[in-house]
Design brief:
Blueprint lengths: L2 E7 L3 H12 L1 H4 L3 E9 L2 H7 L2 H16 L6 E7 L2 E9 L2 H17 L1 H4 L5 E8 L8 H16 L4 E3 L8 H11 L1
Parallel strand pairs: 1-3, 5-6
Antiparallel strand pairs: 2-4, 2-5, 3-4
Length: 180
Amino acid sequence: MTKQVSKELINSWEWLDAFCLTQRGICELACGQHAIVVVQINQFEEIKERLTRSQLNELLHKIEKQMETYALEDTIVAKYNEYTYVVVLHYLNSRDEIEEICSEIEAAFSEDKEISKYNISVTLGAAECHHDPDSGYKCAARLAMEALQEAKEKNKDFILAPDTLRPHPLALKMKEARRK
């Protein structure tokens, strides 16, 4: 079942985690490789200032339509804020597959004639999520946001965070606290 929530704002990563668990079930999420991709529109405030309200609404509608193309059966697409989208990918086979999807998203924005006339570009940050019920998607979401910031600083289209096979230190602390 495809779940498209592009018109709702995600108020926290906990909401995203709960949403994913509800949609997929703990058993499905406990195995397999998943990823979170954060897609951010570059220089959004400058774009917003130079467009009329109707032009901005038209542009945002086109961007949402572009993002909806990634809301497939095994993918969740959500709007985080006015200029940031979150794509949750399920059942991936490799880091190469994540990089390929990031390249496709970036290329789709640069090749879309309706969007490119506004000189829109995007930057992406991505992270793998080998699901850990103790930390959910929050760890991967944090890593994806850090990768996004790094991509912006290095002027790259996207960065995939380092491999997250090992439990994140925060997840280890949470497990230790529960044992006490």
